[in-house]
C-alpha cells in the first residue's frame, strides 16, 4: 500500500453552504458562469449540458444532489470542471460561488467534525477555525455515470 503524503495541494472552493476542500488535481478548470447549452432531463440536480473543450459534459447542482437546498447563483458564481476520481465518466461540472483558493493541507490541519452529512458529502472538517466539507466525489460520479445525453 502506498504511503499517504504528509501534505496535499488543495483547493478551498466557495459553495452556497460550506466551502469544499478537495485536492487541486480534481479541478480541471474554472470557467465563467454560463447557461447550459441543453437543459437537463430527469433529476433536479442536473442543470443541463455545457460544451467544454469540444465535449458535452453535465452541469450539476451540488446542493440539489446533496438534497440540501435550491440553487443560488451569486454575483461571483463560476463553473468548476472536475476530473473524475475513477476515470470512468470523463468530466463533469458544478456551480461554485467564487474563485477557489489554493492551500497546502497537512494531515494535522484536518479535524473531523461529528456533523450529519448529506448524500454527496463525505465529511465535515474543522479548518483554521471554520467548517469545510469534503464532498463525496464517488457519490457524485455514480450519479453522473447514470446520465445519458439527450
Structure, explained:
The protein is mostly beta strands and 150 residues long. It is 9% helix and 44% strand. The chain contains two helices and twelve strands. It has helices at 62-65, 137-145, and strands at 7-13, 20-23, 27-32, 38-39, 46-52, 55-60, 78-83, 91-96, 101-106, 111-113, 121-127, 130-135. A six-stranded mixed β-sheet has the order 3-7-8-6-5-4. It has a three-stranded antiparallel β-sheet with strand order 2-1-9, with no helix packed on it. The longest helix has 9 residues, at 137-145. The relative contact order is 0.24. The model has no long low-confidence stretch (mean pLDDT 88).
What is the element layout, followed by pairings?
Layout: E1 7-13, E2 20-23, E3 27-32, E4 38-39, E5 46-52, E6 55-60, H1 62-65, E7 78-83, E8 91-96, E9 101-106, E10 111-113, E11 121-127, E12 130-135, H2 137-145
Parallel strand pairs: 6-8
Antiparallel strand pairs: 1-2, 1-9, 3-7, 4-5, 5-6, 7-8, 10-11, 11-12
Q: How do the strands line up in the largest sheet?
A: 3-7-8-6-5-4
CA(first)-CA(last) distance: 42 Å
Determine Rg (CA atoms, Å).
15 Å
Gross geometry: globular
Task: Provide a count of the helices.
Answer: 2
Number of strands: 12
Biggest beta sheet attributes: 6 strands, mixed
Structural class: mainly beta
* Percent helix: under 10%
Amino acid at each position: 500500500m502506498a504511503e499517504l503524503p504528509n501534505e496535499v495541494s488543495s483547493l478551498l472552493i466557495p459553495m452556497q453552504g460550506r466551502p469544499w476542500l478537495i485536492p487541486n488535481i480534481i479541478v480541471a478548470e474554472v470557467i465563467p458562469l454560463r447557461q447550459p447549452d441543453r437543459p437537463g432531463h430527469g433529476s433536479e440536480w442536473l442543470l443541463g449540458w455545457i460544451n467544454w473543450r469540444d465535449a458535452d459534459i453535465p452541469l450539476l447542482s451540488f446542493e440539489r444532489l446533496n438534497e440540501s437546498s435550491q440553487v443560488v447563483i451569486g454575483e461571483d458564481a463560476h463553473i468548476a470542471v472536475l476530473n473524475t476520481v475513477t476515470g470512468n465518466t470523463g468530466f463533469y461540472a458544478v456551480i461554485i460561488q467564487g474563485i477557489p483558493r489554493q492551500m497546502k493541507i497537512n494531515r494535522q490541519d484536518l479535524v473531523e467534525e461529528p456533523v450529519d452529512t448529506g448524500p454527496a458529502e463525505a465529511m465535515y472538517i474543522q479548518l483554521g477555525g471554520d467548517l469545510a466539507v469534503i464532498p463525496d466525489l464517488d457519490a457524485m460520479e455514480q450519479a453522473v455515470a447514470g446520465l445519458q445525453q439527450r
